[in-house]
Request: fold
Amino acid sequence: MGSYREEKEIIKKEQENIGRTWIACVWSFLVSMTGGLTLGWWEYKHHPTNSQLWMVPFSLILLVTPVIIWFSVFSSAICDSRGGESQRVTSLNNSVCDPER
Reply:
């Protein structure tokens, strides 16, 4: 059993992680929204003349990139076979690839 202080620190860390996740979600939503609005503005203003074509790939990149990133983050968390445990990095002291040998 942990002490009250340890439990309080764990709760504080969890709240910080939730806050960081929300901030990342809001930023990615804003980036995606910027891409959609840029594409809409191009459609409204420049599409009849086919001018300012640089706006199309720029806005599509902004629109789709956050979705791809969130999909990869969530799918890697779901497919984690160890249930969320962090990976351990082992030392190279006794390995064949040890550069010190």
In short: The chain has a mean pLDDT of 83. The radius of gyration is 23 Å. Helices lie at 4-45, 55-78. DSSP finds two helices and no strands in the chain.
